[in-house]
Model the fold of this input.
Amino acid sequence: MTDDREAMFARLRESLGRLNVRTAYPDFAADIATPKARRGGGPEVFRQRLEAANTRVVESVPALGELLRDRDTRHGYCDPSLATILGPALGDDIELLTTFDRERMDEYTFGITRASAGIVETGTLILKDRDTSDRLGALAPWIHIACLNPDRLYATLAEAIIDLDDDPNVILVSGHSQTADVEGIMIHGVHGPGEQVCLFL
Amino acid sequence: MSRQALDVFASTLDESVLQAIEVGARSGVDKRLATLTEDYEDPDMLRRLAGRLRQHALDHLDEYLANAEQRLTENGARVHFAGTTGRARDIILEILRRSGTRVVTKSKSMASEELDLTRVLQARGFEPLETDLGEFVVQLDDDHPSHIVKPIIHKNRRDVARSFERGGLGDYDDDPETITRRARAFMRSKFLEARATITGANFISAESGRIALVTNEGNARFGQAGADIHIVLAGIDKVIPRDRDLALLLSLLIRSATGQRMTSYIELVAGPRSADQPSGPREMHVIFMDANRSAIVGSEMAPILRCIRCGACMNTCPVYRKSSGHAYRGVYPGPMGTVLGPLLAEGGFGELSDLARASTLCGACADVCPVDIPLPELIARLRERSVREHVKQGQQGVPAMGLYALLAGHPRLWRLVMRLGRLLDWVPLRKLPAQLSRAWFDTRTLPRWRGGRFRRWLRGAGGDNHD
Amino acid sequence: MVPERDPVKGTRVQMMMTCLCDAFFDDAAHAAWMCLQRAGREVVCPDGQTCCGQAAYTAGDWPAFRQVVRHVSRVFADPAPIVVASGSCAAALFHEAPMAFEGEPDLPAIQALARRTWELTDFLVNGLGMDRWGGRLDARIAIHNACHTRGTPTIGAVRTLLKSIDGVELAEVPDSDICCGFGGVFSVSHPHISTGMGRDKVANVLSVSPDCIVSADMSCLMHQRGIAEHQGQSYPVRHIAQVLRDANRGLA
Done:
């Protein structure tokens, strides 16, 4: 199968050769699109923004246990490195499974994985491939609990993007999954989690 | 002179369709404006800035495309170049065949519509599944999306319920939450069954090779997490210079498309899954598709390629709202479709050239475009091209201007016509068989002819007149 | 688009009546003349004028458009400002003509023409600095802004002048920024959509019970009134110049 690469670049160069003047890269601050009202603010503002973005904030491991009991979801997936920390504090009735078995996908009622950082401007959690023990664990169950160290916060979307390392899969999560495809009515819980939770660890 | 196909189509639309579109479009307009005015003192400044940024990317596309290719290859992805939609199809089929998969999950991609990919895959024995809810309904109906962001803007819940029932997803139920849950339940196992998943790309950074995917549903995430192979199909115009540009462009795209500040998920995918990640693609392919874009770059029509597919222009366009996306026949509807459609049309410029007539040049679209595309000017230039190249289809519905220009250059003749026009008062114009007069008089009256009266008054008033 | 214009010098102006006023709205042309007189101008209205050529531009026949604009350029060769009784005709000359003359040898002359072309109310308010018109007219007025004046000073100028007239009450029309569907040739090439848009506009305007509908452009008003009358509805339209002139009736 031959590639059209050479022909395409030749066409591009020919087309661009027509231009007398090529538009220059404009000069602008990376965070120019951060609204004034959303600049600044630390962990407390971040909490508010998370909630505004449909993410439930949970302040302690016992509180997480309460939430799971409340939902009657006591059987779920957990990042093995977190299971040792969380297991005892959650309670015996909460079962944490540390491998995600695709055959039993619908048996996991929740998934607990790490978030790598957060963005204050937008109330966003950053998930990265290298910090996520299993993508499916963060995605398939109805409830996803992202564990975040609240010291790892970026003020703006721009700051977060500029600071990205070479992780191959970075996901900016701002709340639960949703769709408004039917008559513009917003329904949550489509293909991603129906409930997004953030646990500060 | 004849009535335009788009107008004829519009006249066949059901009231329920028109209402659904009006509600959906208006909501898009209102939400966009509310968020932009709440967040920014000068949203227009940001639109113009983003416009310059996108134009810069296009004006240096040879360089940026090469950079993106290099970075993606370094990241472990396999990069392909497809000169045409046909070649893109071949590349995708080849990858899928090698994968041994039957089920293929797909995220929303307008570029894939240019290939009619879902139908092609079906015909070749694959089981393609549109995972975006709107596109899923379109697939159930064997239909086409009518809006680039809200594919089923033209449907109401009853339509969707009937589609689901026909598609074997349960008894008729038009509750939106039920519909959504059914889609979720149906698709979950399919995400795992599919060994390959296909997505588009909202942006591709030349600096890092990162593919930006913007969704609310999580379908693209699940498609990738479940699959071994990720195929990205993107027009070459999706390349942007630097990662930092993503902050500006994503901020404008999302606000312009839905009025949100962030969609639930923004994925920034640089390559196949990391070494220790158990779920996700081991293999990633990025197909850069040309399909006539390289001819538009560097031309006076190049600004249309700035388009970031937000849909704001069609939400605000009164012509789109009265005719629906399907009236535009091609892949892209609304104002951006009237320009991009004819330029990308595989059958050549003529095929969709009449779309340029489906506009009053009101400029509402240009006022909302996040990348400052001068749409009315581009539409006018397409009309000019139709006339210059004698493209009959693009000149339908338009009277020839030769006689008019002649009269307008000969004041004596002009003034004579002005005086003679009074005869029109005695001619029952509505009875004339001409399409032109019917098109006016079927629904409108015309004022009485007063040609020459002001000039006579001027002569009497002794104003300084040249002759 | 805010055009760059030469500052107004002297009192002489050349008035462009527009082909529509020439054919249908002689009283609007008369009113424009009177307004310019009242503003202390020496008004010249060249009899050799015909049309601005916009119909050819929107049709895509740019050679024909250039032909007509060249005639305009000859007829209005005097260096005095050209004041046009229509926002869309003015836009044809200061915005569309320079575009269509790219690469033409007489582009500089057309650019010079563009720099001295003004829509009437823009000329009064911004060219002459008149932010008050005065006079009296008891009327509830709905303003219609032609789409060609989008982003131009005309929109502000019409409002400024009307608000300065005693007795004028401005009625805010819902969805006022949505096009009425005239669009020149569009009205006959896409009659179904054009009429649908026009009916929506008429309904929105009439919903605020205006005594009259006023615009700097008669083209849109002709289409809207045509639709309203066809439906048996009363739709009194006035050119802004007619309102300004009438507000001065009874004054010296």
Notes: Residues 47-146+192-294 of chain B form a domain with the Rossmann fold fold (CATH 3.40.50.10420). Chain B has a mean pLDDT of 94.
